[in-house]
Fold:
Amino acid sequence: MSPRVQIPPEIEEYRDERWRRDEMRPIETAFDAERFIEQVGFAACLTDSRRPGPSLYTAVCGRRDAVMPRNVQKDPEASLTWVLKDEIVKRGKVYYAKLGRGKTMFLAPRMIPYFHAIFGIRRSEEKRRLSGNAQKILRVLRSEWEMSTSDLRDESGVKDRTAFTKGVDELQAAMIVMPSEVFYQPKFTYIWTRGVGRFPDALRRRVSRDTALLEIARCFLSGAGMTIPGEMARVTGLPRPAAGLGNLALVAEGYATMLARGVYQLADRPRDILER
Structure:
């Protein structure tokens, strides 16, 4: 096996700036979090330094080496991240759902059409690509528009918790359904709604798969400065060949340079960008 490519120190510093891994600029409010997501284009919620890519939790911590503790309930940074997540979901200004490969992500509105072009399912394809349980859940939401987990489980007839969760996850991954609010009293529950209700223009905008891969790759590389083999795929949930096509398209237009197989860097050196 070839040795793992190491991220150079100057690239880590660039990522510190772009991904808010900076103790002088921690995320403290939902407004701060929404601005951060808009700037980076897409971000995970509760990943830490052990996973690549921008993360709300890491930005709340404001440090590169942030590690999620085992007892998250008693950790102030993890608790704040969870509270901010709930506020962001309720405010509805950025997209939040479990997308490709089960990755829970925030998407800035400008990135929704590109992710939808990759992961979305057209209505004409639903019967072929969605399971029966997912179709039952969707049928109820198309009628009622918004419903709590327990009510949706009862109305859809998918009363087994595991089967219901799997069905909802299918609909989230297809960018059809998303959570719109979360309640903890009298019991914990999500309120589910159709994504098109919150982001109609973004989800109805048609873009080609090639354009989508190009723009997702551009978004990631602009924040990362450099990407190593498999990194973009791990962050976005894209298959590695698809992520590679996006990066190669950036090279073709002169936005990036290929340093080695699977290693791409911004054509404008990241250090130069920070110094501007």
Notes: Strands lie at 42-44, 95-98, 104-107, 146-148, 177-183, 189-194, 226-227, 256-260, 263-266.
